[in-house]
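2024-03-11 09:14:02 INFO worker-7 job=invfold-0412 stage=load source=structure_tokens
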């Protein structure tokens, strides 16, 4: 619902997957354009009777990424990393070892980053000397009021099925 004087904008959504990097990422160049390839694994679980989760075998898929994002991701990703990728599932025709045509499915990532629920890391923010960090607070909904910045609440622990499986 739009508020008086504001236009309504829909929340943009896209496909994403949470997975682990199952192979060493490879960076290649075709006609000067970077292409990242990695095999990824997606963990699956099913509910147990009486509560809890049974871990199932992971499924494995191809992930590709292009351009400067591919180059940067190649520098940051390692086999075993837990990541979240945003993009889309695409199929492309290929020929198998027996000369038969088949459709191959791959996830084409536009963005990728480490899963903060499963990864511990430090963030290094770039700032100019003497520059104050920009506020990322949403504008007030009503008349201008003084807002005190509160620290964000601690994230909830991940559900039992989100734990990475032994590989």
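2024-03-11 09:14:09 INFO worker-7 stage=emit residues=167
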């Amino acid at each position: 619902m739009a508020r008086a004087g504001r236009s309504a904008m829909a929340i943009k959504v896209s496909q994403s997957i949470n997975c682990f990097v199952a192979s060493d990422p490879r960076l290649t160049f075709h006609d000067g354009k970077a292409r990242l390839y990695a095999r990824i694994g997606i963990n699956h679980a099913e509910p147990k009777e009486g509560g809890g989760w049974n871990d199932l075998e992971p499924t494995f898929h191809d992930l590709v990424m292009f351009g400067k994002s591919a180059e940067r991701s190649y520098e940051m990703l390692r086999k075993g990393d837990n990541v979240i990728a945003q993009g889309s599932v695409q199929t492309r025709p290929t020929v198998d070892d027996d000369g038969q045509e088949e459709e191959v499915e791959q996830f084409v990532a536009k963005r990728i980053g480490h899963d903060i629920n499963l990864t511990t890391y430090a963030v290094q923010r770039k700032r100019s000397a003497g520059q104050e960090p920009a506020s990322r607070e949403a504008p007030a909904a009503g008349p201008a009021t003084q807002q005190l910045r509160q620290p964000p609440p601690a994230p909830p622990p991940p559900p039992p099925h989100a734990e990475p499986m032994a590989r």
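2024-03-11 09:14:09 INFO worker-7 stage=report msg="The domain at 13-117 is CATH 2.40.50.140 (OB fold (Dihydrolipoamide Acetyltransferase, E2P))."
2024-03-11 09:14:10 INFO worker-7 job finished
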